[in-house]
Design a protein that fits this description.
Layout (H helix, E strand, L loop, with lengths): L3 E5 L4 H13 L4 E4 L7 H6 L8 E4 L2 E4 L1 H11 L10 H26 L2 H21 L13 H5 L1 H14 L10 H13 L7 H17 L2
Parallel strand pairs: 1-2
Antiparallel strand pairs: 1-3, 3-4
């Protein structure tokens, strides 16, 4: 049996992407909880360039960056496909994954910054949400007719964004402005509970981390 380890954080959407893919493939793995305040020798050895989680270690070989890891898992292990088989759908999936990755920093700025910088970031997030709301009209999945690559990567928008909104008091998503996105998000969280952490536990974790940061701004 393959030796599979995942260095990550239980509250990280990036770690959960990888866990999700491993579960879809039916791969048994050891989860190693990292301490970012005191990074382990294993993390520093496995990802010496960025020193970040998640890191997948497969038969002693480390793979870094959640998107890269997802594609690796799809190619390295038997089981249901994560990326679409059709070349066009595969390209489309990679387009939307890059869209989510490119917009991630702006989402964080809209929560953590203050003043003019925050307002600028919020406008960019609203534009992103308008695009997603339009894309998700009458759709359950981003690409094709089954859950896959983009849907896994969208986990932060489906669950973590709402948690950050609640903790920070910054309102970005409303059903009046973005009804299709909200309907997608609600169904996503309801249908995928086994792959997502507890929302209540995330709230406690992020309240302890975020509220002091926001209060100090």
């Amino acid at each position: 049996m393959a030796d599979v380890k995942l260095i990550g954080l239980w509250y990280s959407p990036f770690s959960h992407r990888v866990e999700w893919a491993l579960k879809i493939k039916g791969v048994e793995y050891e989860f190693i909880e990292e301490d970012l305040q005191n990074k382990s020798p294993l993390l520093l050895e496995s990802n010496p360039i960025h020193k970040k989680i998640p890191v997948l270690i497969h038969n002693g070989k480390p793979i870094c960056e959640s998107i890269v890891i997802l594609e690796y898992i799809d190619e390295a292990f038997e089981g249901p496909s994560i990326l679409p088989k059709d070349p066009y759908d595969r390209a489309l999936a990679r387009f939307w994954v890059k869209f989510f990755e490119d917009k991630g920093p702006t989402m964080r700025k809209s929560i953590f910054l203050k003043g003019e910088e925050q307002e600028k970031a919020k406008e960019e997030v609203f534009e992103m949400l308008r695009i997603l709301d339009n894309e998700l009209k009458d759709k359950k999945y981003f690409v094709g007719d089954k859950f896959g690559f983009v849907d896994i990567v969208a986990n932060a928008g489906a669950l973590w964004l709402g948690v950050l909104e609640e903790v920070s008091g910054v309102v970005l998503v409303t059903s009046e402005k973005f009804p299709n996105f909200c309907a997608w998000r609600d169904e996503y969280c309801a249908q995928n509970k086994e792959y997502l952490p507890s929302r209540d536990e995330l709230l406690v974790r992020y309240q302890a981390y975020i509220q002091p940061v926001i209060a100090s701004k």
